[in-house]
Write a sequence for this structure.
């Protein structure tokens, strides 16, 4: 397995707070990795460091040469004074052509949304526009920061199903931060629990047929979600 | 034609609007209003420096405004509580500049013209400086347009696309210092950021794309400058405040037109 992104012993302070303390993480080609952790555990910071938006104080991030990354930020804090429609947004910094843009929008079920103002989209539509934008990069890796925050559970499941289809079609690796400690995308190959450092990692439990799972999620999610059981074996990883 | 002080004043105002339009929209989109204030007020300190050292006023204010803009950009980049720090810097720079000017002896200083502008006293040299600077700013922003836009929407998206958003911030910072230096004579240090923000805000209800917003902001700026100039002549009021008042009136008008259009 070739590593697309490899982080070794990352340390990072933001202000006086030591946010990352010796984090190691590898994203292999085609892998789906979910990062979970309590608030303030450094999940977003880690993702932004892997992306190259933050520089670690110590440690090394190695990205494969010429790696194409599709990035989906936590939310797009678009200033209401900026008039931007979907097509124009997707054409930044350079246009991918009308046909490719239309195809990417159709892939995320937003066909014909080109001229809609970005500021008028719902949360779920915005997430799918961001996914379309990521797809236009022909990404080898898709990095996402809490992509389903603000969506209800059917919306979350639908987004994960779409993501899984896209993953199968493109073969891109997926690295995402999840806002839920225990519920993750079922297709995750690995779940990494972070709290300043890596507390534990493993595969999510495939329990979608268990009655408890149905009681929790109902039938509507069609197995897109799964539970992750934490198995911390050292101190400093307490969370709810 | 350039012998007429009115023609020079009008040309100077249009020149400044060419630069404040494209830069002003970014000041609004990126919420850099206080940033503009700090840089504008620092220009007064630059005037004091120029008077004391014999440098041209334009160069002095460009240098000090540039230093202030770079300082502010560096501080914000490091995650300082931007609002407070900018407030401290903006007003300290203005006060320090006023104190420093009072120490400069031997020069009869018309302080009012630096605070509120003196558009009717624009010389041919000033015109050259204003148009040269304005065209530089326009060229800079046109060259980086898409990148500036993306990094204003979201810096991390720009990073993911292989851009360096810090570089775009630096470009806007330099452009801001240039615009401050060349608007000093038109509206004065106190109201420079008003000339950046108000026309851009007035352009918003009329614009459907970033590009049309720039065009509207530029037209609004030029309209405000010419209207202000005319009022200044007619009623003998200071040109700078007259220009800013005119742009405020245009802002109200634009909001009403925007409402009517949507209704």
């Amino acid at each position: 397995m070739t590593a697309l992104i490899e982080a070794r012993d990352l340390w990072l302070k933001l202000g006086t707070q030591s946010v990352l303390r010796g984090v190691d993480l590898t994203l292999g080609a085609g892998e789906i990795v979910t990062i979970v952790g309590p608030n303030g555990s450094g999940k977003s910071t880690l993702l932004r460091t892997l992306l190259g938006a933050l520089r670690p104080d110590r440690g090394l991030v190695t990205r494969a040469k010429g790696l194409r990354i599709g990035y989906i930020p936590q939310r797009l804090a678009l200033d209401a004074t900026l008039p931007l429609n979907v097509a124009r947004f997707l054409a930044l910094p350079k246009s991918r052509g009308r046909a490719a843009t239309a195809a990417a929008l159709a892939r995320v079920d937003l066909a014909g949304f080109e001229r809609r103002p970005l500021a008028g989209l719902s949360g779920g539509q915005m997430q799918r526009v961001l996914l379309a934008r990521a797809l236009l990069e022909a990404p080898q890796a898709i990095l996402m920061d809490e992509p389903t925050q603000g969506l209800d559970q059917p919306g979350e499941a639908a987004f994960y199903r779409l993501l899984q289809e896209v993953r199968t079609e493109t073969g891109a690796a997926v690295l995402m931060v999840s806002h839920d400690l225990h519920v993750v995308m079922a297709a995750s190959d690995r779940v990494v629990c972070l709290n300043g450092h890596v507390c534990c990692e493993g595969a999510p439990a495939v329990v979608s047929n268990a009655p408890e799972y149905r009681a929790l999620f109902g039938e509507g999610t069609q197995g897109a979600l799964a539970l992750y059981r934490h198995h911390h074996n050292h101190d400093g990883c307490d969370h709810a | 034609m350039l012998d007429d002080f009115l023609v020079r004043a009008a040309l100077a105002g249009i020149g400044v609007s060419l630069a404040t339009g494209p830069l002003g929209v970014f000041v609004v989109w990126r919420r850099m209003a206080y940033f503009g204030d700090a840089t504008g007020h620092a220009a007064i300190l630059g005037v004091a420096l120029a008077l004391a050292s014999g440098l041209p006023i334009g160069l002095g204010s460009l240098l000090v405004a540039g230093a202030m803009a770079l300082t502010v950009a560096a501080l914000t980049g490091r995650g300082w509580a931007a609002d407070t720090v900018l407030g401290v810097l903006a007003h300290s720079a203005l006060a320090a500049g006023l104190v420093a000017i009072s120490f400069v002896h031997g020069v009869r200083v018309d302080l009012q013209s630096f605070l509120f502008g003196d558009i009717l006293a624009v010389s041919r040299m000033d015109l050259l400086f204003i148009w040269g600077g304005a065209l530089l700013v326009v060229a800079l922003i046109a060259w980086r347009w898409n990148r500036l836009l993306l990094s204003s929407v979201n810096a991390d998206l720009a990073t993911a696309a292989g851009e360096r958003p810090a570089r775009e911030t630096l470009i806007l910072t330099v452009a801001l210092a240039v615009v401050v230096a060349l608007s000093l004579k038109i509206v004065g240090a106190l109201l420079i950021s008003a000339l950046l923000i108000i026309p851009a805000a007035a352009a918003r209800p009329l614009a459907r794309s970033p590009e049309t917003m720039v065009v509207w902001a530029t037209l609004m700026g030029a309209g405000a400058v010419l209207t202000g100039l005319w009022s200044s002549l007619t009623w003998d009021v200071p040109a700078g405040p007259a220009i800013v008042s005119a742009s405020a009136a245009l802002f109200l008008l634009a909001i009403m037109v925007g409402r009517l259009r949507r209704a």
Q: What stands out?
A: The two ends of chain B are 46 Å apart (CA to CA). Chain B has one domain: 5-189. The mean pLDDT of chain B is 89. The CA atoms of residues 72 and 78 of chain B lie 10 Å apart.
